[in-house]
Automatic annotation (TrEMBL):
Subcellular location: Cytoplasm, Cytosol; Late endosome membrane
Ranges of biased composition (kind: Basic and acidic residues): 218-228
Protein name per its UniProtKB record: CHM4C protein
Stretches with biased composition (Polar residues): 205-215
Upper lineage: Eukaryota, Metazoa, Chordata, Craniata, Vertebrata
Residue ranges, annotated region (Disordered): 1-25, 181-234
Family membership: Belongs to the SNF7 family.
One matching Pfam family: Snf7
Length: 234
């Protein structure tokens, strides 16, 4: 068993037993501190590698022994740097997994609170009463719709009168008005002057005059008819 395993098995377990285990926040803080420490170690090793490489160039073939020692140290630093890179990847993965676990735990906890709240709200609800209430609401909506339909329908005032009788009476009134208009119409008197020598001109003037009288009488009849219809409609 390695020393690292003994350390975590011994001291770590004792500390967790005494405190009941670290909280997620404490573990995340420790992991971030470790990441920061390893990042600084990386910067240090990179600096040492550049320094040993410069030394090896400086010695070169003039001092092969010193140059080889510098290159060996550079190799050791590069190996340590590679190990730190792997360790940082592992710590980063563990930190992300712990953060996700902590987030899931908080989500489940809040969902549990919400479920308890919903259960508390539904304790005072009776499904049978809810069904009865919804049925009453539906019935009242139907009644309201029937009332609205009844109010919106046109009332049948005046439907007791026979429409055919009313039309017959209207035609009689129109005929009386037409007869009265014809009696009141006066034809122009025959001129006392002697007839012109040419009968064609006289006939033309008589025909024009007759057409004017007929048109005037027709227009008067139409106006009377429109007035009667308007009075009856009102």
């Amino acid at each position: 068993m390695s020393k690292i395993s003994k350390f975590f098995k011994g001291g770590g377990s004792a500390a967790s037993k005494s405190r009941g285990g670290p909280s997620p926040q404490e573990a995340l803080a420790r992991l971030r501190e470790t990441e920061e420490m390893l990042s600084k170690k990386q910067e240090y090793l990179e600096t040492r590698i550049e320094r040993e490489l410069a030394a090896a160039r400086q010695y070169g073939t003039k001092n092969k022994r010193a140059a080889l020692q510098a290159l060996k140290r550079k190799k050791r630093y590069e190996k340590q740097l590679s190990q730190i890179d792997g360790t940082l990847s592992t710590i980063e993965f563990q930190r992300e997994a712990l953060e996700n676990s902590h987030t899931n735990t908080e989500v489940l906890k809040n969902m549990g609170y919400a479920a308890q709240a919903m259960k508390k709200v539904h304790q005072n609800m009776d499904l049978n009463k809810i069904d009865d209430l919804m049925q009453d609401i539906t019935e009242q909506q139907d009644v309201a719709q029937e009332i609205s339909d009844a109010i919106s329908n046109r009332a049948g005032f005046g439907d007791e009168f026979d429409e055919d009788e009313l039309m017959a009476e209207l035609e009689e009134l129109e005929q009386e008005e037409l007869n009265k208009g014809m009696r009141d119409m006066r034809l122009p008197s025959v001129p006392s002057a002697s007839l012109p020598s040419r009968p064609g001109k006289l006939l033309t003037r008589y025909s024009t005059l007759r057409q004017g009288v007929t048109s005037t009488r027709k227009r008067a009849e139409d106006e009377d008819e429109m007035k009667k219809l308007a009075a009856w409609a009102s």
